[in-house]
């Protein structure tokens, strides 16, 4: 990957920026933990300052998930000493509020239409789902009026499955065996859930920690001191430098992409890749702070011109002899018309991508590799193509997956398990005109929660 360096002064500046925008989250996180410690004090009948939280038996390279909502647990949580059931503080709060834990905002989930590709990523955070993992590709996750959710603590659904939730439904608690049995005790403690929810139902969940005592409060105190000395960064308060005070465009970097009356939001910032290279980060951040999309044009001008033709990629894959023969010569693809997985020869897949293929019923074969490579890193399988991809990325301060100073995943301690930062590819067969079923092309979309 091409060399890219940031000056020491910029690293300090970017660190201050990260700190400024993370501080409100850290305060909320600390407040949530202090609330749980106060509840623990009431349960134990002691003063909050006397609460001693047991440290969980967890190695640095392990990650604990909430057994109910499947989110990662960072520090305080409740755990069963008998069956190792773990419950995050958000689910604890929802249970005490009389809600089905993990389903507090089920009624506010995004509506998606049946048959629309890409719904795998149109989901709320896991606390808005009912103990359900992320839906798989092609699944329609629809909220309508009148059904009962049936995906409580369900395994990952298969591709193409419709998961229908409806509004006038009988409450979840009345339809799921065992949910009425999982309630907060009168003193605020929470029992391990019954077997139907993955617990043992035989003990009380104990408050546990992953971090050393007071580490969050100490961190908050230090962060507060640093941020107080810094200039305040306001989101969305100033007029974008794309326009003059009379709302006329000042340059050609914004394109009109909508025609809404009485709207100042019809333009999208579309800088050229070379302009970005020469310093447009501050301007980009004006839009990014407001949650506005940014389109960077002509990024391929920054690359060496390495071919992404299917057979070029196939030859590059074949060169990597360090992988097992099976992993080099076969891939697991999705057959989009039947929504089924098939194991296929890698050469056949890339040949079919170039030339097209027809099935026995006369319909085109529509195969798709999703999140590929599935079992190894892109760098291991296609190192030259990775370098080409990275060289095309704009705003490397955010997008560089190894050294971007504004990429928060880069800041995680070395021993912490990081999310797979990719890149991953979607490689899909296509036809000139969509068939109306089995559309293989993943639509452009925005994930509603971090992977």
From TrEMBL:
Gene Ontology CC annotations of this record: chromatin; histone deacetylase complex
Record localization: Nucleus
Classification via InterPro entries: LSDs-like
GO aspect biological process, one term: regulation of transcription by RNA polymerase II
Region ranges (Disordered): 119-142
UniProt keyword Nucleus, yes or no: yes
Transmembrane residue ranges: none
Molecular-function GO term, any one: chromatin DNA binding
Superkingdom of source: Eukaryota
Keyword set, alphabetical order: Metal-binding, Nucleus
Family: Belongs to the JARID1 histone demethylase family.
Protein name as annotated: JmjC domain-containing protein
Originating species: Aegilops tauschii subsp. strangulata (Goatgrass)
């Amino acid at each position: 990957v091409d060399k890219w360096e940031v000056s020491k002064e910029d690293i300090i500046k970017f660190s201050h920026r990260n700190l400024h925008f993370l501080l409100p989250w850290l305060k909320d996180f600390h407040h949530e933990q202090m609330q749980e410690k106060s509840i623990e004090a009431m349960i134990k009948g002691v003063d909050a300052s006397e609460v001693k939280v047991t440290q969980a038996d967890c190695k640095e390279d392990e990650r604990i998930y909430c057994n109910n909502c499947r989110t990662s647990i960072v520090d305080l949580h409740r755990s069963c000493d008998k069956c190792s059931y773990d419950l995050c503080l958000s689910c604890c709060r929802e249970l005490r509020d009389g809600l089905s834990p993990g389903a507090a905002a089920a009624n506010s989930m995004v509506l998606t239409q049946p048959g629309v590709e890409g719904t795998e990523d149109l989901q709320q955070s896991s606390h808005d789902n009912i103990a359900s993992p992320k839906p798989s590709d092609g699944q329609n996750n629809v909220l309508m009026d009148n059904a009962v959710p049936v995906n409580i603590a369900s395994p990952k659904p298969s591709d193409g499955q419709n998961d229908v939730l409806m509004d006038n439904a009988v409450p979840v608690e009345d339809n799921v065996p065992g949910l009425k049995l999982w309630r907060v005790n009168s003193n605020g403690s929470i029992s391990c859930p019954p077997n139907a929810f993955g617990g043992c139902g035989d003990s009380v969940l104990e408050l546990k920690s992953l971090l050393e005592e007071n580490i969050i409060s100490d961190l908050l105190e230090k962060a507060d001191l640093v941020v107080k000395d810094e200039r305040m960064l306001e989101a969305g308060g100033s007029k974008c430098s794309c326009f003059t005070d009379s709302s006329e465009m000042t340059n050609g970097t914004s394109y009109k992409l909508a025609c809404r009356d009485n709207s100042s939001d019809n333009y999208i910032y579309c800088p050229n890749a070379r302009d970005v290279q020469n310093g447009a980060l501050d301007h980009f951040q004006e839009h990014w702070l407001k949650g506005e999309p940014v389109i960077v044009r002509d990024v391929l001008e920054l690359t060496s011109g390495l071919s992404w033709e299917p057979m070029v990629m196939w030859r590059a894959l074949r060169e990597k002899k360090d992988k097992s023969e099976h992993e080099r010569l076969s891939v697991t693809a999705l057959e989009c018309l039947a929504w089924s997985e098939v194991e296929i020869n890698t050469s056949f897949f890339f040949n079919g991508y170039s030339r097209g293929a027809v099935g026995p019923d006369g319909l085109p074969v529509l195969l798709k590799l999703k999140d590929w490579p599935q079992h190894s890193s892109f760098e291991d399988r296609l190192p030259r193509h990775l370098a080409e991809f990275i060289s095309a990325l704009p705003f490397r301060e955010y997008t560089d997956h190894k050294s971007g100073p504004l990429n928060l995943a880069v800041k995680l301690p070395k021993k912490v398990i990081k999310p797979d930062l990719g890149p991953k590819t979607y490689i899909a067969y296509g036809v000139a005109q969509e068939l109306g079923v089995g559309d293989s092309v993943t639509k452009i979309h925005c994930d509603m929660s971090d992977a």
